[in-house]
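Supplementary Note 3. Input sequence used for the single-chain structure prediction.
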Amino acid sequence: MLKNIRGVISIEAIGDNIYKFINELREMHIVCTSQKCRNGKFTAQIYSKDLKKAESTAEKFNISLTVIKRSGLRFKAYAYRFRFGIIIGIMLVLGFVFYLSNIVVTIEVCGNNAITSQQVISALGDIGIYKGRFIPDIDFHSCEQRLRLSIPEIAWTGIRHTGSRIVVDITETVETPEMVNDDIPCNIVASKDAQITYTEIYAGQLVRKKGDGVKKGDIIVSGTVSDGNGRFLKKHAMGKIKGIYNEEIIFTQAFEESGQVYSDDIQKRKYFDFFGFRIPLFFSDIDSKTFDYSENTTKFTFLGFEIPLGIVHCSYKPFTYDNISYTKEEADIKLQQKTALHEKNFYDSKDITIIKRNIEKKSNDKEMQYKISYTLEGDIGKDWEIYVD
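The predicted structure, written as discrete structure tokens, is reproduced below.
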């Protein structure tokens, strides 16, 4: 490898004083390899840097010195010295590699849970860290402080880079648990008319048992308890009370209402993504002023690594605001969707079980109505303060 880089020259020397020439080369510490000497002809290989010394020594002893072959990287490169396209190409590649190693290509967020990576990346863009930014110009310490101010849910953050990759380590704040003031005397009362199905008492005296019916406001767990010595103390009653109760909800859907009317003509546009900058690859703008927008980006790769170049595919689904008419079947589907959304938001998320559901449908010329009677099982207890003189 070293010979290939330094360059090796094969020489041929002919003359009467050939041995004097060889001895002189040795005394001058000129490295000769692959030496052969026969019938007054000497062949060998020397480094290119020693050629001039060998030529002057050959002239001193009246030796005819001929260069037979030149080999090595330096001679191959020299042959292409006037091919400017190759030189420019090499320079551009080297410049591109240098540029890629000093700009932000990817941003990774680590340690986040409640905060999304997109929130952090968006905040970083506002404070000066984004794809295509020149890394030596970034003040990481200042950006760490500004990021914590931008997102209050971040307790600590550290920003570092490995090559062209920015890594953001964050620690989220821990929410302070809700403090229950158990010093205030209170009872647990029924929040609605119900039948008790489950009790779990932590403090206080249970005055209604499982299976009992209660009306809204009835005491289920009393905070007034005996100390065993004939005295009564007022404490903060605590427990979990479940019961079965009824609830009625009414949903309506008009047969005609104002809404978004979508066009079947979905328009597509493309951008060339160059280090975060978008270059349009189209000439005409979108016809509609109102539309739903979606996009996805196809990144280019180089030697198996993703680079900050790619094509952004954008989709525009135009719509206008107009009156929308529904048939009875379509209105019925809309009401079913409203019902499902209500149950998900108000029952499923609060651990309330639907035991029974009865839907009464009504309609007239203008609208359809769902009158829904629910039989539910859920938490029915609430704290009710005991006022002490």
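Residues 2-77 form a domain with the Alpha-Beta Plaits fold (CATH 3.30.70.260). The chain has eight helices and 23 strands.
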